Protein 1
Amino acid sequence: MSKPQVWTWEPNSNSGKPLFALCQKGVEFDYHYVNMTDFEHHSPEYLARNPAGTLPTMEHDGKVFTESTPVCEYIDAAWPDQGPRMVPPDPRERYRMREIGRRITRHAAALSVLGWHNFVGPMARSKTQEERDRIIARIPTKERRIAWQTAMSATFTETQLAEARAAVGRGVMEMEELLTQNPFLAGPAYTIADLDAFANFYSLPMTVPEYANKEKAPRYIDWLIRIYNMPGTMEAFGLARSLARRAFTLKAELEAGRQPVQVTLAEVQRQDAEAKGGGASR
């Protein structure tokens, strides 16, 4: 069996899911960093591999995978004897894993509003209009060109941001409720429902501290710490070059019983600039 090849951005949100799955399973792979904030996923080289221009992309034994959650199920099935089993063998438990995973990750759309407002949007708008026009022009589909063009120029009102924070907060409370009976979201064992949710929501104590805190959501905080300490999790975060480096601060602060403070845009941009000066694929 060949070594998987992964082209993706940070271990963050959809981009990070195959990185967490491979690292937690203990599978060796080659990691090819694709800088989303420079829109490298719309470069001709990347589009030749994934014409949709989405992240992530994984190649293994001649097959290309571009859907972030199904690829994690593939990883679990392709290496059944390595690391934890992430997909339950019982069909009813498997259904529950998928249903809960989809239910929780629907809150990721609201989180994207906050992420774009805090980080990605300002980084995109820092480029010249000529650079932005060139980036938009090479996006492969009309729908995605319109979406990215709108996103690049969009700003959010305080009302929209407050609504997004409240929607993410509801996601925290939903996870808190699920964790009242079991240590993981879909039952007593770690599954892809947890991986999916963790990839999206590992940083909520920084992003929405008014909801994601030890007083309001103690089980959610304990769940975060539990997954941060799973074999492979911090190895995946060690691949980060900018935004997801915050995970090291998050883990240390949560374990010390402190509420993490949001990293600044300037800090993310500094790390991003340092990463552009070097760094090899895993």
Note: Residues 278-282 have pLDDT under 50 and may be disordered.
Protein 2
Amino acid sequence: MIIILLPAYNEETDLSPLLGKIRETMDRHGYAYRVVVVNDGSRDGTLAVARQHAGDMPLEIINHSMNRGLWETVRDGFEWAAEHTDAGDVIIRMDADNTHEPRYIPALLDKLDEGFDIAVASRFARGGGAEGLNLYRTFISRAANLVMKLFFPIRGLKEYSCGYRAYRAGLVQDAIRIFGNDFIDLRGVGFTCTLEKLVKFRMMGARIGEVPFVLRYDQKRGSSKMLSSITTLGYLVLILKNVYPWGATAKEWRRKIRDLQAERDGAAEDRGRVAATAAAPLERSTESSRTSD
């Protein structure tokens, strides 16, 4: 099962064409999927558009009666997905403004099949790019990614700020188990939560890869929700809190990560012993047969 999360705020004009492309892509590839629109108190017809499409595709709606901000909208979506998936399922998060093309979903899934826990759609990978961004937004985006790579280096990753990603559901379930309500805890600082998730998964030792994609900002008809000054402030706070996580909370996170890894290692050893025990009678039988011959 693939869960596609769409946090949405005043996306009346862009949500409908995106949902149509998602349905076409998923049906063409025969994927079992469910779209989850998290409507964050939109004041336009976003909710009505989502309800209309719920009649012709597998679609759930989480509705906030008032605007709570991107961080809480994303957190609610991931918590819902974690509760409604098995560990082997996939969670894909996309923007609802029609700038993330669903045609990249197969490539993201292929990347997970290579053994990665997270696959990032990257504008900065070879073959990636962006259409419709002005020079200022392009500069800010590249500068932010370079700064984040400096403080939070992840081998092979060039894209830190794009929210278009595919996650193994088991990884998200583990993150919520470890971080709880602090899985996304920077409130009211713009789009920082997109990077914060990556930082938390990095702490867990997640394997993160990327695939090239082209951001289609030229297709966006609604207004931009990003305030670069607030998001920049959020990045600074994130760096201060997470480059060297400190305090009792961070200590507890590290303990839970170690305990989870020990639990996984123990389970792997148990499976190995069971396999060895099951193989032993066959080996003895084979040796006996050779001796009698």
Note: The CA atoms of residues 17 and 188 lie 29 Å apart.
